[in-house]
Amino acid sequence: PVAHVIVEAKRGWNLPTKAQLRKYVVRFTREPQQCALVVQAECSVSYAKDRLPPDIEGVPVVYLSWRRLWEMTRECRAVASHSEKRLLEEVRLYLESLMTMQNVDSNLVYVVSLGADRPSWCSITRQEIVNRRGKYFFCLGVKGWPKTPPNYLGFRFGGRLQCIRHVDRYTVARNGAEMSREVPEIDPEKCIGCGDCVEECPTGAVSLVEGKAAVVDPGECIYCTACESVCLHQALRCPFEIILAGRNLDRVKPKSNRIL
C-alpha cells in the first residue's frame, strides 16, 4: 500500500507545536489512514509523548528520536550489503553529530546550590528533597542547565559543598510535582531481621517476614528514608534519582552551576 509521510526534524529537545503540524495536514492528498506526520528530535519518547498530540485532524503523529534512528542504522548493518554498510556508516556518523551523547565514564561533578525554601509543588524544602528522598529536579537544557544527565551531582548549602551523589537513574517529567515515588529497595542477603527499620518507620510501612527479611508496604510508605538511615547493614537503599523537565515552574536558577 502507498502512504504519504511528512517528516519534521528538529535539533535538540525542541518539538513542533500543534500549529506547526497543522500546516502540514493541508499538504496530504490521501485519506488520513494512509498518511502520517513523523517528528524527529533528540528528546526521549516519554518527553515527546507528553507534548505531542496523538493525531492532527485524524492524521497520526509518530515520534522517532535521533537515538532510535542511530540504533536502527546499527541494526541494519547485520543484513546490509557492503555498499549499504558504507552508506549506513555515513548516516550513523551524521546522527552522532546531531545527538548529545552521555559519557557514562565521566567523573565530572555538576555542582548546584540548594536553597532552604520550599517549592510550591512540594511539602518539604529543597534540601530535604535531596537528603530525605534522594531526588533532585532541574530544567533540561534551559538557561545553562545540562541537556544530558550528569553522572554525579554536588550540592552546596550553608556556604560550602556538603555532599556529592552518584546519579543512579533519571526520569523526564513535566515538572517537579511529578517526581516519582518509590519504596526503598531491600537486599535480602544483607538483611538480618534485626527489626531496627521496623521500629524507626513512623507509619508502620516496614515489617518482617517470618522474622527474617524486611518488606515495605507501598501504600503506607511516605518515602522519608528513615529506614535506610537506621540500617547498619545497608540492606535498605533509596536510589538517588534526578527528574528532568523542560522548564522550572518556580523560576529558581542555581546560585552556582559549575563543573568540578
Describe the structure.
With 260 residues, the chain is an alpha/beta fold. It folds into 2 domains: 4-98, no CATH class; 109-259, Alpha-Beta Plaits, CATH 3.30.70. The chain is built from 7 helices and 15 strands. The strands form 5 sheets. A 4-stranded mixed β-sheet has the order 1-2-4-3. A 4-stranded mixed β-sheet has the order 8-7-5-15, with no helix packed on it. It has a 3-stranded parallel β-sheet with strand order 6-14-9. Helix 3 runs antiparallel to helix 4.
CATH-level-2 architecture of the largest domain: 2-Layer Sandwich
**Count, helices:** 7
Estimated structural class: alpha/beta
Radius of gyration: 23 Å
Strand order of the largest sheet: 1-2-4-3
Proportion of helical residues: 10-25%
- Please, what is the average pLDDT? 78
Number of strands: 15
